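Z., the sequence and structure:
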Amino acid sequence: MFLGEYSHSLDEKGRVVMPSKFRTGLEDGCVVTKGQERCLFVFPMDRWDEEVQRVLKLPRTDRRARNYSRSFFASASNQSLDTTGRCQIPESLRIYAGLSKDVTVVGVADRVEIWDSATWETVAAEADEYYAAIEEVLTEEGI
């Protein structure tokens, strides 16, 4: 399980060090792809297989589902951590997420998210306000 928030930097080759607590979960490789709100999703291989099955169940007759699948899979990149725990972020994904130097690596239970640090500050503040104001029980249907 991936938990926590960590500040890191991209190196000159577009690599980011994964927090040491995340490395065991990513040691068999991972897939980096576009996430929502202009972040990147990093899925461990077993979780990636589950995500693929979920996306494949979307109706191909729905334009939104087709566009989602295209963007999600076309941008996906198989990666593995190097001996120092760094993950290569392809240039196209760095551009999509607006990554330059300072990044925030966030554990979100079954996946890792990589954010431009300034964007993360804004998104996290919004999420915290939403979280603090919830008054009803959330269900899968009610979110």
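The chain is about 40% helix and 30% strand. Residues 2-133 form a domain with the Chemotaxis protein chec fold (CATH 3.40.1550.20).

Let me know what you think.
H.
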